[in-house]
Write a structure and sequence with these properties.
The chain has a single domain, classed as TIM Barrel, CATH 3.20.20. Helices cover 40% and strands 15% of the residues. It contains 6 helices and 6 strands; from the N terminus they run αβαβαβαβαβαβ. The radius of gyration is 16 Å and the shape is globular. The termini are far apart.
Length: 183
């Protein structure tokens, strides 16, 4: 089921976000935690992808397993940083072939080693570019994009941040999602 349908059908909408563990033992532990959270009836869950796509296979595998084995609606985070267009296409094809219908299109964080944010020659520079590509090439997916209630930390102004958000919506983002953290 697409997340947008969940928002239309359920109120309030509760979701959980998970980070793929680095080890097989952590993967098993996380899956058990998700099972324990299932009675809270989240409308969906999402799984992040590490900086530069470092947890690509674990993210895809976990999202597929959550939907297949637990029956929860799951969404894969998909950053464009570090991926060429063909790699993005292959990830999306794999998700679609396994019945995943939700993708969070992101620019992504730079790798922790401080590598440049520049997109590969045949990649995407911005989340809005990725959103447009997904809408054009993978129309069956629900494309979610990020928004920032207090502006993106790299935005030059609130107006510039809103312009970037509008580009995502104009490119075809069907839903905007944000996170709030309390420290």
């Amino acid at each position: 089921m697409t997340i947008i349908r969940r928002f239309k059908a359920e109120k309030p909408v509760i979701s959980f976000e998970f980070f793929p563990p680095k080890t097989d033992r952590g993967f098993i532990s996380l899956f058990h935690t998700i099972e324990e959270l299932q009675p809270l009836k989240p409308a969906f869950v999402s799984v992040t992808m590490g900086a530069g796509g470092s947890t690509r296979s674990k993210t895809v595998d976990l999202v597929i397993r959550i939907e297949r084995e637990l029956g929860l609606t799951a969404m894969a985070h998909l950053p464009c940083i570090g991926f060429e267009r063909e790699q993005i296409h292959e990830i999306l094809k794999q998700l679609e072939s396994e019945g995943i219908r939700n993708v969070l299109a992101l620019r992504g964080d730079p790798p922790k080693d401080g590598a440049d944010l520049a997109a590969p020659l045949d990649g995407f520079d911005y989340a809005s570019d990725l959103v447009g590509y997904i809408q054009q090439e993978h129309q069956d997916l629900c494309v979610v994009a990020a928004c920032y209630p207090e502006t993106h930390p790299e935005a030059s102004s609130a107006e510039a941040d809103l312009d970037h958000l509008k580009r995502k919506v104009d490119a075809g983002a069907q839903l905007l999602i944000t996170q709030l953290f309390r420290q």
